[in-house]
Write a structure and sequence with these properties.
Largest sheet: 3 strands, mixed
Distance between the termini: 32 Å
Structural class: alpha+beta
Number of helices: 2
Shape: globular
Number of strands: 5
Low-confidence stretches: none
Helix content: 25-40%
Order of helices and strands: EEEHEHE
Radius of gyration: 12 Å
Length: about 90
């Protein structure tokens, strides 16, 4: 499984989105290609470059559950469009 991190700052945290309640949601991608595609969509919207980082999904899910952080697993057959970085 893969998460996205800022290029050159991979150790500083992962990319997350805000849900409709304002809570941060960590995206975890089953496929590296889907993570790369999502990062490309963000970059096309002037977001800083992101890189996929392979993670141990069980450890990451456990960390999220222990800290109350929400997460979303993006399956290989799902299409997810990032929120616009330039949206006002």
């Amino acid at each position: 499984m893969y998460i996205l991190c800022l290029q050159g700052k991979e150790e500083e945290g992962a990319y997350a989105i805000a849900n409709r309640h304002g809570n941060r949601v960590l995206l975890m991608f089953d496929e590296e290609d889907d993570a790369i595609r999502y990062a490309g969509l963000l970059e096309a919207d002037d977001f800083p470059p992101l890189v996929p980082i392979e993670i141990d999904s069980e450890s990451m899910i456990e960390m999220c559950e222990n800290t109350g952080y929400e997460y979303l697993i993006v399956k290989a057959d799902e299409l997810i469009i990032p929120p616009s970085h330039n949206e006002i």
